[in-house]
Fold this sequence. Notes:
Elements: E1 15-21, E2 24-31, H1 35-43, E3 49-55, H2 58-70, E4 75-81, H3 90-102, E5 110-115, H4 117-129, E6 135-140, H5 143-149, E7 154-157, E8 166-169, E9 174-178, H6 187-203, H7 209-216, H8 224-242, H9 259-273, H10 280-299, H11 304-315, H12 328-335, E10 350-353, E11 356-358, E12 361-362, E13 371-374, H13 375-387
Parallel strand pairs: 2-9, 3-4, 3-5, 5-6, 6-9
Antiparallel strand pairs: 1-2, 7-8, 10-13, 11-12
Helix pairs in contact: 3-4, 4-5, 5-6, 6-7, 6-10, 9-10, 9-12, 10-11, 10-13, 12-13
Amino acid sequence: xxxxxTHQPYSCSMQSIELRFGDVTIPYHWGWDIEQEILHALxxxxxxxxxxxxxxxxxxxFGNDFARALERVARVSVLSIxxxxxxxxxxxxxxLCEEAVACGATRRSCVLALGGGIVGNVGGALxxxxxxxxxxxxxxxxxxxxxxxxxxLKQAVNSETGKNHFGLFLPATAIFVDLKLFGTLPEREFxxxxxxxxxxxxxxxPEYGEQIARCARPEIRRTRAALEQMIPIAVEAKQRxxxxxxSERSTALALEYGHTIGHxxxxxxxxxxxxxxxxxxxxxxxxxxAAAHISCAAFGAPESLVNLNRxxxxxxxxxxxxxxxxxxxxxxxxxxxxxxxxxxxxxxxVVAMVLLREPGMTMGSRELPLVPISLSTVEAAVRNIHxxxxxxxxxx
Length: 396
């Protein structure tokens, strides 16, 4: 790799994969302690200003230091947001748009999203709206963001009634994953990230199931070796489906396994439990288990599918029971507003869901892996998880 400022080669410990989404390509770089390589690469963008979107957790940990280092490359404006799903909104994006324009952003500016999935989505929406689209670079700092949410063209925020109702498609200019940053993550964030990896192994790449299960174990998942092993697998799962479905409206909908009910649980938990809310991954874990129950009850999938889902979640220390403080009727109301509504011509009391016949084989068709499910069936599955394994408790 060549330093664009001096035109001299420098040592680079980054590895790279080219992500392909139809006719769109995005370079995905990763390595351990690669801040200097990231700064060199950002210099080559010749931006007049970096709009560094981060949050109040990441900023004091390393965001402020990164901003100072970035000042040697170009002018920097730090745009900070709070934490939690409630900040992933049009109001937040609108505020950042106004701040960006006020600080002198132009079409040559570049949004840097330094943080987890919420920061990535807010930053992506900001980049897509400013001047009808400026450059976006993702620097994810959580497992969920690095292995799942940034490997997509989707940039979206929430409405007051549901997840990801407002958004657009915008390819990032580049993605940089510095695995060293994950060392600051609490154990709960590693658990959350493992949920998306397990979802991929169950719905898309079952051949990697044993490897993902091994790396998801609490005593292993924080190691550098496990983190590095999971990146190519996470990319493979996404690329297998998105190569010919860049907008995730056809075959790539299989990646939504566990998300219909999981997103609803996440939304209700955020409203009710606020700072003690379930994480995205914990919510998706519960959504996967509920979807497995529906696969068996409504379509005759083998009971072993439920057992496989439960065992995978327990292996990673993820929850398998919905906390009783979360009201089932609220979860059902949120499910009815799921953002996949409209793919199938469903009645109001029916939702479209991704279900499995067996690991790696979705129901519906390959071109549209969705099936209609009545809200009464969803209610029964949610009630089942509320009532089962009464001695279990979600992780704190």
